[in-house]
Specification:
about 50% strand, 5-stranded antiparallel β-sheet, 2 domains, mainly beta
């Protein structure tokens, strides 16, 4: 995860950025999550992102590990909530089949002696939990699936 302080029209913003997929990044600006879509040009080292209010995930997302991309799932299917940082699973306050609301706590990860809350980005039902308390996770590892 990369952290920046940026100024836009004289206002300072704290931004945390993690790239989710090619062309899509999950960011947090002053504590509010957003999904940013961008295009990379072969000739330019950086591109101009367009910002859209995050509507899919309220968790701090992480880039995919070097692996084959998952096939696209149809609308309404379960979506994985991924670990935004390496650490160990401290607590899982939800269970499979439990209904959750946007902003509900899904997992607590301990990293660098800090507890990090992973929150639901949308209303849904916990379809699967891929981790257990005490397990070490890397950035981008699937924690659970929400449908």
């Amino acid at each position: 995860m990369k952290k920046f302080k940026i100024k836009i029209e004289g206002k300072t913003f704290e931004v945390s950025v993690t790239e989710q997929d090619k062309g899509v990044a999950e960011i947090i600006v002053n504590g509010k999550p957003y999904t940013v879509e961008f295009e990379r040009e072969n000739t330019a080292p950086a591109s101009k992102p367009s910002i859209a209010k995050r509507s899919v995930r309220n968790t701090v997302s992480a880039p995919q590990q070097a692996a084959a991309p998952a096939p696209k799932k149809p609308a309404g299917s379960a979506k994985s909530v991924k670990s935004p940082l390496p650490g160990s699973i401290f607590k899982i306050p939800v269970s499979v089949g439990q209904e959750v609301k946007r902003g509900d706590q899904l997992v607590i990860i301990e990293s660098m002696k800090m507890e990090n809350n992973i929150l639901a980005d949308r209303d849904g039902i916990v379809k699967a939990i891929h981790v257990h308390t005490g397990q070490s996770v890397l950035q981008g590892d699937a924690l659970l699936d929400l449908e």
